Queue: 2 jobs
Job 1
Amino acid sequence: MSEVPVTKNAGGAAPTGDPLVVLDNVNKHFGALHVLQDIDLTIRRGEVVVVIGPSGSGKSTLCRTINRLETIDSGSIGIDGRPLPQEGRELARLRADVGMVFQSFNLFAHKTVLENVVLGQTKVRRTDRTTAEKKARTLLDRVGVGAQAEKYPAQLSGGQQQRVAIARALAMDPKVMLFDEPTSALDPEMINEVLEVMQQLARDGMTMVVVTHEMGFARSAANRVVFMADGRIIEEAEPNQFFSNPRSDRAKDFLSKILHH
Ligand SMILES: Nc1ncnc2c1ncn2[C@@H]1O[C@H](COP(=O)(O)OP(=O)(O)OP(=O)(O)O)[C@@H](O)[C@H]1O
Ligand SMILES: [Mg+2]
């Protein structure tokens, strides 16, 4: 976990880490659709950035470009001072450095929970089996599913599976964690158990990009809110400022829809 001292959103204090993820004038099209338009975004070490915006605004695509699940047409993306690798082992390492948790849990169905968390460590990080298993059990305990280690994903609740997915990403010692609507497929009673794990991660200094509609999480954990619409970053601000005083009409309109329902 990052050792860089960061002031978490206390009285709006800015984080102190150096730039970790840097998107510079990034553009991407899907055919005629200009899905990412002139995106400039810097995420500092230890920073928690919540990305919000209407459906189809490009939030998922933005996340996916950061670990190169999607390529970009122009501009550049760097992580820890280096451009994203194109292919091969370097790309596998990037995917380990950039942990990703999706809406759907994406665990290997035919492997036990423990095996799900061991696998990437032994294959990509070349960690020996004993060390990998020890680490997996520690992480599963940390996210509150240690007792489920020998079960298969289908035997777990959605909230438990999502916490396993988080443990699996953490097992790779990622530099940054991307969460794309990690709680939106969960039953209401399971949302908080996942958000609490994410809150703890944020407090521990993990660098995080989180696409979510959970505004309580944004208010309490985020250093910054980034608001997207139509493939652009329309505005970004510290959460209290964004929620109490959004500047753009698009953000005001969006907030009135999600906060008054
Ligand atoms: N592989 C693809 N091929 C073609 N179009 C795509 C592809 N993936 C996404 N799109 C389109 O790009 C736009 C942005 O999609 P994206 O999934 O990034 O939006 P989003 O902000 O995550 O939306 P949501 O809130 O619904 O998850 C949408 O219009 C979508 O239909
Ligand atoms: Mg999406």
Job 2
Amino acid sequence: MATEPKTLNDMFIDTLKDVYYAEKQILRALPKMAKAANSAELKAAFEKHRGETEGHVERLAQVFEIAGKAARGKTCDAILGIVEEGKAVMEDYGDSPALDAGLLASAQAVEHYEIARYGTLKAWAQQLGLTEAVSLLDQTLAEEVKTDELFSKLGVGSINKSAQPKAA
Ligand SMILES: [Fe+2]
Ligand SMILES: [Fe+2]
């Protein structure tokens, strides 16, 4: 039996599954990063984004529904790798001044992955005529971009400075 040629719709659903899995991994990683962070500002930023991430999972479930598919995740090796690097930072820089700078860098790698994925999903939803999905994906994309900007501000504002204390 000949297999059906795969289309953009198949790719859209596969990528939704990838991001759904990734967001759930991020939900588990953010509290650990908040706990590890020294800076109160950074802790608060991680905790705030954990709350937003719950909304991202919820929106993805809605997008699955719009696409007529059950919400299901599919192992995303990219996010596993990024989260693994974050764990290594916590282990290798546990009590060091540079810990927060490393956590921030890991968190921004996560955001950039999400921004890439949501940008693609939004473009594909547009192409597929899934107007409601476009709006949901765009809301999440905007939150990821805003979070990335906040992280950049924290880095330049204080975190990077305290990572390199001046010699007495
Ligand atoms: Fe997210
Ligand atoms: Fe995010």
